[in-house]
Amino acid sequence: MQAFRDYLRSRSMAASPLMRAKNMLHRSDSTSKKTSKIQKVLEKRANKIMMKASQTLEQSTGLAIGPRRSVVETYPEESGEAGDEAEAEAAGALACALVKVARHEQRHALGLVPLPRLPALLQLLLRDCCGLLAADVERACTRSRRAAARCGPSAGCWALLARLQRLLPDVERAFAPAPPAPYTAVLHACTQHCLRALEEWVEGVRADGAAAAVDGTVHQLAAAALAHCHALALHAHVIGPALATEPQYARAAAQAPAAHDRNAVLLAVYMRKVLAQLNFTLRNKSEQYPDALKAIFLLNNTHYLLQGLQRSGLLDVLSLAEPDCEANYRNLINEHKNAYLQSWNKLLAHTVLEEPLPPKLRDRDRQMLKDKFTAFNREWEELSRLQRGYSVPDAEVREQLKRANKRALLPPYAALCERAAAAPFSKNPDKYIKYTPVQIAAQLDGYFDEAA
């Protein structure tokens, strides 16, 4: 068992993407020539130029062109996820090996000792093997829990638990006539680790300190939450019975109609908890933005979650615990769109005339029109500068917002321009009417595209 465990670990290490990349980096090329002294000087100067450019770019945009990152820095999540899966697979393979060893010992012991003494002998023979399995299961579950605490992929422990449960009948036969108490203890410990991993994932969402993107795009937590729920759905038959032992989930599931799959209902209750905490965390993160970008950020994330739940089929599962979930998401999307459109109110105020213009303009009427267009131009240029950097990844939502912007801005601005054209207010009107309605529409068409 010890040798088999060492073999599994060496194989998983060799197969991991981190080790493959590391080997590629350290592979020597016998045909390469020594770097000349001139080339070294040129490389040193190039590095200085790159460092200077990186500092300038980082100060102006927040982006950095730093030195080439290491393999661990470049692929931290991929290598960590592969390692977690490898640990869980190795622990599952060790459990299979335990069954084979137990059967082998059982067959040989049957003809050597009296039957009444067989249970004690088998327990003694298999004690160290069970200890190795317990250590490996603990190791795999601990890695999954660490991943859960940082909102990473943590379903590996559930795959391990499912495998341990499938092996239980074989273990009972292989351990007979001894009770499989050491194995059931491992099974129970694994179940408890899995349940804690679920709650630690929610805590990870609550405590996440990663800043939201400057352009208001979808936050990485939203993508992680969808991936987490999708991975758990593959193990609903294992997660359901485990959650049923928790009073809060059992009470919530009892409120669902009896006709529904109980395991799916319990998973839906947990999903509802994850998504509710995610929504709360995203709202807190949105407070760093001005009002318009705050609405865009929440709109992007809410729409992304709804689309992801629909594509994966998880919306049907979630509806078992929250029947109105789709309608709630759509209502939130409309609220965020309306909140974004409110950002034009200050600009629209400059298109409203407090009183009708007389047939013959007075000096104060001419000055009022000049002030209106001057204020409109200033506000429009500032808003355009800001909103061109906003990101709306979904093409459909992007076009919806563009159309809504045109409906909100063009009619009142066109009406103001028509009034000004009908009543000349300046010898040089182009100085004040810097943008025609057609130009405003063209600029609105360019919104969200650069960042998207």
UniProtKB/TrEMBL annotation:
The keyword Transport applies. Keywords: Exocytosis, Protein transport, Transport. Residues 161-445 form the Exocyst complex subunit Exo70 C-terminal domain. It comes from the Eukaryota. One of its GO terms (cellular component) is exocyst. One of its GO terms (molecular function) is phosphatidylinositol-4,5-bisphosphate binding. The keyword ATP-binding does not apply. It holds the Pfam family Exo70_C. One of its GO terms (biological process) is protein transport. InterPro entries: Cullin_repeat-like_dom_sf, Exo70, Exo70_C. SUPFAM superfamilies: Cullin repeat-like (SSF74788). Component of the exocyst complex involved in the docking of exocytic vesicles with fusion sites on the plasma membrane. Belongs to the EXO70 family. This is Exocyst complex component 7.
